[in-house]
User: Which sequence fits this backbone?
């Protein structure tokens, strides 16, 4: 769904679910066509899912079967918009594992294509700006976790982006 169509199609859902959640102290967050609704009880969850399905039916849209999870938050939290959101016990925000792997794959692709260091550095800089908008990370740990062979000049550049 394009951003414009998402804004038009899901505006009614925003209003109805937003109002429902606000009255009950629940959390509803939507960005484009991705959304999260956090409920306190199974009864609230069932009611808000019914309301969500009604809203989607009205605009002839459906939930993606492989991208939809309805149920209790898992022990290690859940992924949303590239971040891992911890449960209430850990209360942490981190980078989702899939985000790490996508970043590593992109870097590997750039190296295999013999992309110039400036272009790779620009990619890393933009990725880090995005990441740091949500979480704090240590550059050295990031490089080690990705397991990517980084050229010395690029590593030097990345360490001084902070």
Assistant:
């Amino acid at each position: 769904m394009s951003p414009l169509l998402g804004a038009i199609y899901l505006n009614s859902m925003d209003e109805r679910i937003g109002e429902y959640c606000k009255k009950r102290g629940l959390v509803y967050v939507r960005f484009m066509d991705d959304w999260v609704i956090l409920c306190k009880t199974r009864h609230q969850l069932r009611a808000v899912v019914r309301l969500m399905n009604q809203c989607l039916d009205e605009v002839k849209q459906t939930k993606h079967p492989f991208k939809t999870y309805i149920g209790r938050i898992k022990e290690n939290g859940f992924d949303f918009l590239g971040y891992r959101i911890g449960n209430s016990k850990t209360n942490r925000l981190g980078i989702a594992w899939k985000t790490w792997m996508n970043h590593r794959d992109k870097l590997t692709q750039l190296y295999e294509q013999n992309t110039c260091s400036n272009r790779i550095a620009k990619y890393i800089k933009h990725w880090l700006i995005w990441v740091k908008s949500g979480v704090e990370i240590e550059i050295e740990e990031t490089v080690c976790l990705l397991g990517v062979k980084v050229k010395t000049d690029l590593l030097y550049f990345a360490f001084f982006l902070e």
